[in-house]
């Protein structure tokens, strides 16, 4: 019986930590976007897609971002394995994360895989 309580406690802790991470990242909405030193140039809305090559949830979403990136120069892919500093500035705690910045303010902060329609709607 004790093992069952330990397992249930571990599962509950896992879900609590996941919920806390998502909640903390969503609180970034409406806050000023971090200064990036002109690395990600462009005017108007900017869409940042944070991913990791080893992330299973990122694999179906990355081709969608690639298509959008070809059509819109304000779509940026950020591989957190190579650019953890940018991810930290935005407060990204998990991948995939999609951040919409408009007029220097974080307008949307989505955590987890998103549909192609939802991503298209953000950048248009």
Folded structure, characterized:
The protein has 124 residues and is α+β, with helices and mostly antiparallel strands. The protein has one domain (2-123): Glutaredoxin (3-Layer(aba) Sandwich). It is 40% helix and 19% strand. The protein contains four helices and four strands. It has helices at 2-26, 62-71, 84-90, 116-123; strands at 46-51, 75-79, 97-102, 105-111. Strands 2-1-3-4 form a four-stranded mixed sheet, sandwiched between helices. Strand 3 and strand 4 (105-111) form a beta hairpin. The longest helix is centred in the first third of the chain and has 25 residues, at 2-26. The model has no long low-confidence stretch (mean pLDDT 88).
CATH class: Alpha Beta
Average of per-residue pLDDT values: 88
Q: How big a fraction of the residues is strand?
A: 15-25%
Helix percentage: 40-55%
Total number of helices? 4
Structurally, the number of domains stands at 1
DSSP strand count: 4
SS-derived structural category? alpha+beta
- What is the CA-atom radius of gyration, in angstroms? 16 Å
Order of helices and strands: HEHEHEEH
Spatial sequence of strands, sheet with the most strands: 2-1-3-4
CATH topology: Glutaredoxin
Low-confidence stretches: none
Give the CA-CA distance, first to last residue.
55 Å
Q: Write the CATH architecture name.
A: 3-Layer(aba) Sandwich
Which homologous superfamily in CATH is the superfamily? Glutaredoxin
Shape: elongated
Major β-sheet profile: 4 strands, mixed
Brief account:
It is elongated, with a radius of gyration of 16 Å. It has four helices and four strands; from the N terminus they run αβαβαββα.
